[in-house]
Amino acid sequence: MTRQITLTIPDAVYDQVEQMAKASHRPITDVLVDTIGQITPALYVDADRPTMLREKAAFMAMHLELLEKYEGQFVAISQGQVVDHDQDVLTLVRRIDLDYPEQAVLVKQVVDQPDQDLHFRSPRFIRA
User: Fold this and answer.
1) 121: which DSSP letter?
2) What total number of domains does the chain contain?
3) CA 100 from centre of chain
4) Which residues pair with 86 in a beta bridge?
5) Within this chain, do residues 57 and 90 fall inside the same structural domain, yes or no?
6) What is the pLDDT along the chain (128 residues), one digit of tens a residue?
7) Torsions phi, psi for 77 (to 5 deg)
8) What is the rounded distance in angstroms from the CA atom of residue 104 to the CA atom of residue 97?
9) 104 and 74 in one domain?
10) Cβ atoms within 10 Å of 83's Cβ, excluding its own
11) What pTM, to 2 d.p., does this model score?
12) Are residues 28 and 65 in the same domain?
């Protein structure tokens, strides 16, 4: 799928792209699409990912303490601290959305094994 857009760029940038296109004997649009494709990550990475990784590390560091206090419940962790907890994840998430708008908050259930290994079987085709 492709989309057509109108793009306004400074003359200096256009001149550079035009020179690149002439040198490689390619249309300007192809040079622009390739350049944008090269600087765009193949997989989307959320801007809050580093924050969530820190909150997950805090959860793991506090796991034994959390297990004693909140086993089976869902906890909300912000800035390395438990800020709320509840048996019902939806109730907790609603409160977190109200109390911490625009902020990344980790919501995770406190269980014996905090991270589960997932195993996926790979299909095999067998000739009859």
Assistant:
1) P
2) 2
3) 19
4) 74
5) yes
6) 788 889 899 999 999 999 999 999 999 999 998 888 888 777 667 788 899 999 999 999 999 999 999 999 999 999 999 999 999 999 999 999 999 998 999 999 999 887 766 677 777 777 76
7) -120, 125
8) 10
9) yes
10) 16
11) 0.58
12) no
